[in-house]
């Protein structure tokens, strides 16, 4: 019965099986390539049996009578057979043509081979189904090929350049690259024709592969994404160069945005009567961190220079008399007093000059040697401490979370809310601090309750930002609320 159904009307059966195979293949998930391949082989095998049983040879052109009603069915049946053969071969290619560790190259090679399979299928249908003389057609189509080649010259150049870039692998998706024309950004997509780059301005730049292949390319993400930055600082020659170099090294050592290893480098580039030129070389974790790191380094250089009594040099373009330039003998570096530190701390910006002066008068100086532990994690500091000079490391559970430099402060959570410190603070260099205790704050905040809340808000925000580097406990995650609540309780009572 099955034999009669298949071979009673073989052409109709073959066409039915062919279209059924297409439908089944379409509804099978592409995530199951092995099942798809088995189905393709089964349908192709059944179609081959029907053709052999009916005496039709798909690999030969047998000719058709003009009035033969079966001619159209034979053409359709043989065409379906060739299509299923091509799909079975492509299934093998997709499943077994794999390059271990090189998915992009494997996909490219698969696409090239599949393209050859499709071309072979179309030529086979033309030759064995329609009887087109392929040899003569290929020989006489040279002019057409030349015309098409000239018309598609740019597109073909992009395609072959894309193949070369894929095989050469100068970059992969996610790499940050810099081109010789100044284009810079992260590669977000790469296809046969073009490469898409996401720039720092949050724009997508689409570069044809043929254009990209002609440019010099720097892959910033290799061997890793650490990126070298160079800043030039000009210092007034009022101190010996070795002292200036040490201050610059200290400023870089206190920076939280740069890479510790390899260590930053300070190079003395030039010296004249107007300035000592210093070059700071340091690395950041990725190109996206260049601006934050540069900003922090410039801020810390200024703060350490002010703390060490160094003066910035006058710009070389400025017209000045050499007699007015500061020297080592007559230089008057700015003094760093408690009042100057209070003026520089943003949380005290709402205080009047008299109120700042009253706080400064109560400040006491404290000195710590290198290696001294200022406060242990879990202890409470009942005073606000402002860093006058030196570097302090903040460690949580033995891991360094950040560093404090001149102009920074700590102890605000203990002063205002009676809370424990979340980090251990250790002096990395000789450290000088100014300390303001709760007794000095109490009269001022009692007179101005609104000021208490303003300062508490700013101190709490600063504390949260610092603690975000550490693993926050639920208690510390609510420090802003705790500080405000305690402020209201203490100073409004």
Task: Please explain how this structure is put together.
The protein has 493 residues and is an alpha+beta fold. The protein has helices at 2-7, 10-27, 33-54, 71-96, 103-128, 134-140, 142-151, 153-168, 209-214, 241-253, 290-308, 338-344, 353-362, 412-417, 438-447, 449-467, 474-477, 479-491, and strands at 176-179, 184-190, 194-199, 204-208, 217-219, 227-235, 265-271, 276-284, 364-368, 373-375, 383-389, 392-396, 399-404, 409-410, 424-427, 431-437. The chain is elongated and about 115 Å long. It starts with a helix and ends with a helix. Mean pLDDT is 76; it is low at 1-7 and 470-479.
Please tally the helical runs, counting DSSP H or I stretches of 4 or more residues.
Answer: 18
**What Rg do the Cα atoms give?**
38 Å
Q: How much strand content do the residues show?
A: 15-25%
Query: What is the overall shape?
Result: elongated
Provide mean pLDDT, rounded. 76
Give the strand order, joined by hyphens, for the main sheet: 4-3-2-1-5
The main β sheet shows up as:
5 strands, antiparallel
Count all strands and give the number.
Answer: 16
Give the terminus-to-terminus CA distance: 102 Å
Helix fraction by DSSP (H/I, runs of at least 4)? 40-55%
Structural class: alpha+beta
Sequence stretches where pLDDT stays below 50 over 5 or more residues: 1-7, 470-479
């Amino acid at each position: 019965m099955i034999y009669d159904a298949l071979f009673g009307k073989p052409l109709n059966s073959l066409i039915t099986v062919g279209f059924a195979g297409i439908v089944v293949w379409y509804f099978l998930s592409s995530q199951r390539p092995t099942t798809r391949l088995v189905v393709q082989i089964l349908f192709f095998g059944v179609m081959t049996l029907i053709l052999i049983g009916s005496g039709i040879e798909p690999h030969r052109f047998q000719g058709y009578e003009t009035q033969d009603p079966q001619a159209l069915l034979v053409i359709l049946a043989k065409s379906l057979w060739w299509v299923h053969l091509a799909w079975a071969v492509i299934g093998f290619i997709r499943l077994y043509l794999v390059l271990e560790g090189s998915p992009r190259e494997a996909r490219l090679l698969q696409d090239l081979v599949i393209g050859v399979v499709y071309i072979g299928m179309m030529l086979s249908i033309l030759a064995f189904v329609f009887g087109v003389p392929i040899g003569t057609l290929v020989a006489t189509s040279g002019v057409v090929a030349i015309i098409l080649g000239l018309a598609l010259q740019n597109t073909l150049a992009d395609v072959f350049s894309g193949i070369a870039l894929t095989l050469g692998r100068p970059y992969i998706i996610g790499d940050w690259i810099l081109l010789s024309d100044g284009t810079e950004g992260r590669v977000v997509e790469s296809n046969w024709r073009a490469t898409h780059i996401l720039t720092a301005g949050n724009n997508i730049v689409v570069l044809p592969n043929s254009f990209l292949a002609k440019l010099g390319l720097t892959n910033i993400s290799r061997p890793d994404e650490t990126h070298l930055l160079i800043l030039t600082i000009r210092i007034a020659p009022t101190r010996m160069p070795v002292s200036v170099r040490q201050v610059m090294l200290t400023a870089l050592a206190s920076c939280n945005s740069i890479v510790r290893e390899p260590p930053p480098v300070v190079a003395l580039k030039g010296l004249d009567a107007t300035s000592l030129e210093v070059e700071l070389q340091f690395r950041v974790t990725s190109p996206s961190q260049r601006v934050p790191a540069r900003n922090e380094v410039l801020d810390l250089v200024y703060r350490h220079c002010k703390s060490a009594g160094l003066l910035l040099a006058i710009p070389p373009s400025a017209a000045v008399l050499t007699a007015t330039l500061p020297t080592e003998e007559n230089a008057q570096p700015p003094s760093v007093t408690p009042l100057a530190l209070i003026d520089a701390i943003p949380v005290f910006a709402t205080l009047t000059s008299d109120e700042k002066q009253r706080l400064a008068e109560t400040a006491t100086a404290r000195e710590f040697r290198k290696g001294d532990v200022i406060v242990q994690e879990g202890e409470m500091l009942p005073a606000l401490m402002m860093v006058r000079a030196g570097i302090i490391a903040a460690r949580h559970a033995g891991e360094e979370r950040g560093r404090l430099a001149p102009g920074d402060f700590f102890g605000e959570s203990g002063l205002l809310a009676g809370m424990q410190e979340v980090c251990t603070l250790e002096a990395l260099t000789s450290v000088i601090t100014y300390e303001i205790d709760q007794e000095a704050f109490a009269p001022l905040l009692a007179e101005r309750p609104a000021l208490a809340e303003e300062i508490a808000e700013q101190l709490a925000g600063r504390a949260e930002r610092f603690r975000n580097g550490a693993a926050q406990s639920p208690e510390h995650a609510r420090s802003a609320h705790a500080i405000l609540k305690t402020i209201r309780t203490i100073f409004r009572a």
